[in-house]
Amino acid sequence: EVQLVESGGDLVQTGGSLRLSCAASGFTFDGYAIGWFRQAPGKAREAIVCLGTTDGRTWSAEVVKGRFTISRDNVEEMVHLQMSSLKPEDTAVYYCRVGYSEYICPYRQDDYWGQGTQVTVSS
Question: Taking 90 as the threshold, does the pLDDT of residue 53 lie above it?
């Protein structure tokens, strides 16, 4: 069974750091584009950081650029999202998404999604 499981969500103070992890089971990340998305209450889900399949290219949304970094652990088959300088507006459920893509971010309807992990940043 293909499964993605996120972990690492927590309650942190403004300015703090947090690392989220996404573990794959039933498949490997090889050949897939990987993205971290988030959804805040009352808002649409949005892509924030992605790792493409070609040359390790990454993309970051402007709102997190310079603060969030995506990385992949090929040994453990995990993807991490390192978040720093966290702000209250970063509060959201964070999701890992994996899929075939000719772009840096996954975008297809049949992509794999994790169940999400809650990040809450207190002011």
Answer: no
